[in-house]
Design brief:
By secondary structure, the chain is an alpha+beta fold. The chain has ten helices and nine strands.
Length: about 290
């Protein structure tokens, strides 16, 4: 998987002056567009579109400083419809406009080329199972929140704190399917997974019961799920589980992620310093 992903990165590099064709990159990587975006974001720490934008502006910056071509020509070649649009994007990355950069020889920001390698440490094992599930229903309370890549998500914290304890207690009584109990469900994420894009966040249960008044229902079609479990200090153990799934498990197993909700079940210890966690991710077998 990583070898093919690196081939896709090589294609990006040779096509910086062309429109981004994610479908072509997915074909090179022998996976789906959805999984390519998901894998790249997890491995690189930024969306694929953001990486390409930064690489284009890095290469364009070198050409600006070289002073051999009009700024408008550089702007048009790298996909900007006008000099003004190019100047805004250039300034956002480099902290200076292209005209000033050329006149003064300013120091610019550089986005290095990315390549991916799998480091095998051999010290950790991952606990997982693959489950084929019939369709099921998520019932609970929903909020539209921004995506936050690192650190606490204040919108989620405020949302959960605003739910009355008795409401969660009533919901938990409806839980009659795996994963049991109150779960956190993330759905309808932007394909780019860019920081600040929005998603649907649920505090909910998986149930066959009728939805109580005031709750929201999410119907999930049948499919295959990879279920990962971990235990340890909060939030490190859960954050490391997410990291290991995309940096170790997917590259080593014949599965790819597919569109669908992502479900996390967390059981805190009495002192709330550690937890047992179970992460459900929608997957499908890679086509070999």
């Amino acid at each position: 998987m990583l070898e093919r992903l690196n081939q896709a990165m090589e294609r990006v590099e040779h096509g910086l002056d062309q429109p981004l064709d994610v479908a072509e990159l997915a074909r090179i990587a022998a996976t789906s567009e959805y999984h390519l975006r998901r894998m790249f974001s997890a491995l690189a720490g930024m969306p694929l579109s953001e990486y390409v934008r930064r690489r284009r502006l890095t290469v364009a910056g070198a050409e600006v400083l070289a002073g051999q071509e009009p700024l408008l020509g550089i702007a048009l070649r790298y996909g900007y419809s006008s000099g003004e649009a190019f100047a805004r994007a250039f300034r956002a990355l480099h902290g200076v406009g292209p005209g000033d950069a050329r006149r003064t020889g300013s120091v610019l920001v550089s986005q290095p080329r990315l390549s991916f390698r799998l480091t095998v440490e051999g010290s950790n094992t991952m606990r997982y199972r693959v489950v084929d599930r019939a369709d099921f229903t998520v019932v609970g309370l929903k909020s539209r929140v921004p995506l936050v890549h690192s650190g606490p998500n204040q919108a989620i914290i405020d949302f959960v704190r605003g739910i009355a304890p008795h409401t969660l207690e009533q919901l938990e009584k409806l839980s009659d399917q795996e994963p049991q109990g109150i779960v956190a469900v993330c759905d309808d994420l932007d394909p780019s997974r860019a920081e600040g894009t929005e998603l649907d966040y649920y505090q909910a249960v998986i149930t066959s019961a009728d939805a109580p008044e005031g709750t929201t229902t999410l119907r999930v079609p049948a499919g295959t799920w990879a279920v990962f479990t971990t235990s340890g200090p909060v939030p490190q153990a859960i954050q490391e589980l997410w990291r290991d799934v995309f940096t170790e498990w997917f590259p080593s197993n014949p599965y790819r992620s597919r569109p669908g909700p992502e479900i996390l079940r967390t059981v805190l210890s009495p002192d709330k310093l550690s937890a047992d966690a179970e992460l459900w991710l929608p997957v499908e077998r890679e086509q070999r």
